[in-house]
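Project standup — Tuesday

K.O.: blocked on the structure for the chain from last sprint. Re-posting the sequence here as requested.
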Amino acid sequence: MNQAPASSEIHLRGKVVVVTGASRGIGEAIALACARAGAAVALAARKQPDLDRVAAAIREAGGAALPVACHAARPAELEALYARVAAELGPVDALVNNAATNPHFGPLVDCSDAAFDKTFETNLKGYWHASRLLVAQLRARGARSGAIVNLASVAGLRAAPMQGVYGMTKAAIISMTQTLAVELASSGVRVNAIAPGFVDTRFAAAIVQNPALRDQVVGRTPMARVAVPEEIAGAVVYLLSDAASYTTGHTLVIDGGMTIG
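H.V.: unblocked you, prediction finished:
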């Protein structure tokens, strides 16, 4: 039987964490927060210069970071990522699946096949591949603990007008999170998800930077504002830490009360 941690302190000291989509926005905030919590952080995204910038910030603060250009929808690149992380930082203990795309903003029935496939390849299949690789590595070395946090969205919990395909992938991520949590619990691997509401990032610019659409979002949010990336990052650190050792299969909604307002 797995033992409870000796302390409820929230930290990631001694852990190696992979964060996908770590070059900006929520992913960057998560990577920085993990490093501040003591983790050695592997940063993955498509553009090396952006990753180098985040890695430099982590190192300047005294942390350990490895920036690796990697397309999260390409299994071969994910395999190379894990191999390099293991060689340079050590075996991976935890994964944050954050890389995402949303090429179609409009009615669901108007989405092209190409945009549909691209969204599912990155947002869902990429998460699945990255998770499988972590589990394989943990099993290969006989590890009895590990953690995965999947970035979902409130768009996966309710209707997502104009973001229908994106919402479908996020609903599937929540389902995948629950299934993996059950299947991996006996191995000591915990799997949870975060469902952010609207966050002020470039990714959400089509809504957040459109005054009319932003007003609609804020108008139905009890806290009457959108989030900033750092407000998502702290919850991820908690779910990766041993302080959350009895938490698995959960989707933590961070939306300023929008889904209940």
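K.O.: great, moving the ticket to review. Residues 34 and 237 are 6 Å apart (CA to CA). The chain has a mean pLDDT of 93.
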